[in-house]
Amino acid sequence: MKTLYESDFLVIRDETKCIRCKVCVRQCANGVHDYDEEEDRIISDNSKCVGCHRCVVLCPTKAITIMRNPLEFRENYQWTARAIKDIYKQAETGGILLTGMGKDKPYPIYWG
Question: CA–CA separation, 104 vs 79, rounded Å?
Fold first, then answer.
């Protein structure tokens, strides 16, 4: 699925080190990695990466690197990068971003 904004993380694979063992394909719970039989290569979808580094740790040849995407939004006092991304995500999914029994933003709690 193509997102309106760039992903938070970039999956970088060193093709010279990759032995196509498919450990990353089998172990990724988010479906980031996929094996293309015709081209005999593993393709990664950055938009699905959550930055857990499981693939990095399990790769036997250390061919994978995960890094934070340096692309940023032009933010201001009213519109932070996080607020913009939240709006994009809500627009894409039609859902509302919720946190269970907690708060993900530094707003004060007035009821307690």
Answer: 17
Query: What is the 3-class SS of 69-99, one letter each residue?
Result: CCCCCCCCCCCCHHHHHHHHHHHHHCCCCCC
- Chain Cα centroid distance, residue 30: 9
Residue 25 in tokens: 């394909």
Phi, psi of 58 (to 5 degrees): -85, -15
pTM confidence score: 0.68
pLDDT tens figures, 15-73: 999 999 999 999 999 999 999 999 999 999 998 999 999 999 999 999 999 999 887 77
Please report where in the chains the tokens 């006092």 appear, as a residue. Answer: 77
When the candidates are 3.30.450.40, 3.40.50.300, 3.50.50.60, 3.30.70.20, the CATH number that belongs to 1-95 is 3.30.70.20
